[in-house]
Every structure is written in structure tokens, then in C-alpha cells.
Amino acid sequence: MPVGLFRVCLLVITAIVNHPLFFPKENGTAPESTEEIIQKMKEREESLRLEQLRLEQEIADQEATQKALEKAAVVVEESKEEKVRWDMWTALSMVIFLLIELWRQDFQEGNWQDIGGEEDDMAVLGKAFKGVALPNKAVLASFYEKRILGTTGDMARMREMVEGFADDLLEALRSVCNRDADMEVEDCMGVGSMYENWRVRKPFVCDLIVPFAPPEPYCFRCQTWCSGDSFPPDEQGYGTIKVCRADEDVTGCICDKTKLGEDMLCLLHSQVSSTRPSSEMEDLLCFKNTQYLDADQVMKWFQIAVTKAWNRISHKYEFDLSFSLLDSPGALKIKFKSGKSIAFNLTPVVQYENSDVYFISHFPRSSLAADIPSSTHWFLTFAVYERRFIQLVSKTLPANACHISCLQILSFLHGKQCSLTGPSGLTNYHLKTVLLHLLQARPSQDWAPEKLEARLQDMLKFLEKCLHEKKLYHFFIGNGKVPAELGFPIIFQRAEPLNLFRPFVLRRDIYRRMVDTFHEMLRNMSALINEYTVHIPLAHTNGIRKE
């Protein structure tokens, strides 16, 4: 038993001593393990070095990317700051430009009297006027007496004859019209050069306007470009005329401005009253399927009515009446048996509210309304106020003032030049507008008869300046200095000024021809005047120049 226990213990001790975990075989494996460890350490060192290089590369890439992003952010920030600075400079430049433009317009509108000053006239007139000498006072006086006064003496008799016949014709027109269905025609009024006493070119033509109104219970509701609604720039100076029932409140109900559903009705207007038959509106001379007055239909109705009226009274007169021009529906001509004839224009118009401003359907012999947007757009004429302004100013001028003489001479020269070189865009209405501006700007004593030469030069200077700037503003529209005695509507005084030369800005061919015609007229002025002037002794002209 003890021997067996001893053997077991010896076996256990031997097993423990020979266990590899306690006593490894150092002599056989030590060198091999050391080399392996060294090799592994080198490999680990190499892998760590490669990992370090990779990490350094990544860090470098990240730093480069960060720098690029920072640089891009700086560029964006600089561009924003540059843009802000540029926007500020642009806005500042625009403000400065607008201030200069407003100052220039105020200077032009408030200092018309400086236009005729004596400072540097040739600089104002430009190259076209250099070397052009106006005829002296004696030559101008002789020309005016021989050519102007000698041909305008019978205008008063012609006006009286035409007005008397027109009144008789309109009375007959009222008798042939249906008072319950046709338009109501009022008395005619004379306007234009024949009634302002400055027409010089033959044939003499009287311009008469005839206001008319719709039959009861209808009325006209007029709307202009300056009444608040937006009108395109090419429709400035125009308006529309809506035919409504007198008891219809077009501004108080929105049913006419909003499209109601099929199952909705307006409580103020029944379906019968709101949707009028198309034939009814066409009988009221409206454009098809609208309530707006059609200028073409008005002229057709007026021509038919005038023809019926003449057939009723033709037996009382020993002459014939006919329409003279196809493109001017209101142009009439009286033909006597002797072969002589008298032409006049009878044009229907619509009164604007309670003023003497009128919507005119057609402008006879004029290019003012040559490009009407549509037949429902009517041009506004201020001819009655223009005539009244000239009459009002004439009362404050010296006796035998030269304002009408200046306009007559310039109109004659322009007409002569157009007969030589052909018509241009410049019209007598433009010439009259120049005179109206100067009449308002210059003091009364400057229009004495002996200052005819100076005032004629002022008109030429002013006209050339307007041609150069392509700006000639309507005298009444936007003019806050219109005399209160005229009773001119304030809505047009507060409107933006209307540039009569605006159509020529887009049509360069017409503008070029107009400028060339004006310059040619300047060069031919002396020759045109001397052609109609009697011989004046040299001593007499020298004596006048010394005065």
C-alpha cells in the first residue's frame, strides 16, 4: 500500500515536471522563436510605417481639402461683397441719373424763357444753323404783307358761309334720324388753323367738330389713359368710350369685373339686363360683342346720316355736296356750277365729362392718329382749349403782336419745303405746339411787331432742340401752369407729359426724313422768302439794321 501510493505520487510529479507549459524545451526552439519574433516585429514595424504614411497622406488630403474649401468660401464671400458693392454703385448711379433727368426736365419746363436768350445761340441751334442768315426785318415784313396777308383776306367770309351751311345740314340730319334709336347730334364748333387765324396754305379747309350723345336711356362713360388704369405706352393720349344705361352703376358692382359661376346670379343686376343682345349694342355703334363705341361704325353712321340730310335740303342750294376723301370719312366738298369748290371737315366727337376735351374719331389730313391701336380707342383733342388759350394770351400782348405772324411764316416755309422734297413727319400741329410753349414762357412785350425776326429765330431754335432730343411735349398734358381762366381739367394737368415725338423714336426712317426736311428748310429759307418779296432799296434795309 505505501509502495503503491509512492508510485502514484512519483508519476504525478513526473507528469508535472514534463508539462510543456511549465518547462518549455528551451534548447530546441529558442533560436527559432526569436527569429520569428524579430521577423514579426519587422513586419509590424513596416505595416505601422505604411499605416503612418497612409494616415499622413489622408491628413494632408484633408488639410488640402479644408484649405480649398476655405479658399472657395473666401472667394464666395469676396464675390458677395463685390456684388453688394456693385449693386450699391449701380443703385447710386441710377439715383444720380434719375436726379439729373428730373433736374433737366424741371429746368426745361421751368426755364422756357432761357431758350430765346442771347447766350451762345449757335451752340443751341447746332451745326445745321451755322451759316444760315435770317432775312432782316424789312424783308420779313414785305414777305408777310405780300404773301400772307394777301391770301388770307377771304377766310372770314369762307368761315361764315361754311358754318351757316353746316348748321342747316345738321338740322336736317336731326330731322331724318330716329330720336328714340339714333345718336343725338349737337351744334358744331370750329377749331384749328382757320379759326385761330394762322392758316396760310391753300386750299383753305374749315375743321368743324360735332358732339353727339346716345339716345335715352343710355349714356357714355369715358375712360382715359391717365384715369388710373394701366394703358400701354403706345396708347397714351387715347381713351375708350363705354355705352351704358344711365341707371347702371358700373363701378358699384363687381359682377361686370368678375366671372360668376353658371349657378350664380347678381342680386343687383338680372340676367336680362346684364347680357344685352349683340344686335342692340351694334345698333348703338359698339364694337362687336362689346359695349365699347366703335369709331369706324360711328363714321359709317355719320356718312349715311349726312347723305340723307343733304338729300332733304339739296333743293335749296345751287351747288353739289360730296365726300371728297376716302381716307377721311368726314371730308366734304361743296362744288359750285362755276367750277369753284370749298372743302371742309365735319367730324363727330364725344365730350369728355363736362369739359371741352373731346374724343375724336378721325384726324383729317393729319398723322397724329395714324397708328390707332384699334377702332375702340379714341384720340383726345384739346383744340377748343388751344383756341381759347391763344385768344386769352392775345389780349395781353401788344397791338399787332407778331405771334400769329411767326406761326404763319414758319407754316408757309414748311409747306413749301414739303412740296419740294415730299412730306415728312413734322406737321403744322407740331409748329403750333412750339408757339404755345413760347407764348407761355416769354413776357408779353417780347411779342411786339418789331421783334418778328427774333421770335421767328426762337421758334426755329426751339424746334431744332426738340428734334435733336426727340422730345416735344404736348402743351396741355402734364402742364401745371395752364391759366385757371381756361377751366382746364386738373386730371390732364397732373398726368405725365405726353411726348409728341415718341412715335419717331421707334421709326427712325421717318425721324431721319423729318430732320432732313427741317435742315433743308433752314438752308432754303432766304431763297423761299425772297421769291415772294418785292425789291427793297438797299439804303432802306441798311437804315433798318442800324436802328
TrEMBL record:
<dbReference type="GO" id="GO:0005640">
    <property type="term" value="C:nuclear outer membrane"/>
</dbReference>
<dbReference type="Pfam" id="PF20266">
    <property type="entry name" value="Mab-21_C"/>
</dbReference>
<keyword id="KW-0732">Signal</keyword>
<keyword id="KW-0325">Glycoprotein</keyword>
<keyword id="KW-0539">Nucleus</keyword>
<dbReference type="GO" id="GO:0005886">
    <property type="term" value="C:plasma membrane"/>
</dbReference>
<comment type="similarity">
    <text>Belongs to the ITPRIP family.</text>
</comment>
<keyword id="KW-1003">Cell membrane</keyword>
<dbReference type="InterPro" id="IPR046906">
    <property type="entry name" value="Mab-21_HhH/H2TH-like"/>
</dbReference>
<dbReference type="InterPro" id="IPR026250">
    <property type="entry name" value="ITPRIP-like"/>
</dbReference>
<feature type="signal peptide">
    <location>
        <begin position="1"/>
        <end position="20"/>
    </location>
</feature>
<comment type="function">
    <text>Enhances Ca(2+)-mediated inhibition of inositol 1,4,5-triphosphate receptor (ITPR) Ca(2+) release.</text>
</comment>
<keyword id="KW-0472">Membrane</keyword>
<feature type="coiled-coil region">
    <location>
        <begin position="38"/>
        <end position="72"/>
    </location>
</feature>
<dbReference type="GO" id="GO:0004860">
    <property type="term" value="F:protein kinase inhibitor activity"/>
</dbReference>
<keyword id="KW-0812">Transmembrane</keyword>
<keyword id="KW-1133">Transmembrane helix</keyword>
<feature type="domain" description="Mab-21-like HhH/H2TH-like">
    <location>
        <begin position="403"/>
        <end position="477"/>
    </location>
</feature>
<keyword id="KW-0175">Coiled coil</keyword>
<protein>
    <recommendedName>
        <fullName>Inositol 1,4,5-trisphosphate receptor-interacting protein</fullName>
    </recommendedName>
</protein>
<dbReference type="InterPro" id="IPR024810">
    <property type="entry name" value="MAB21L/cGLR"/>
</dbReference>
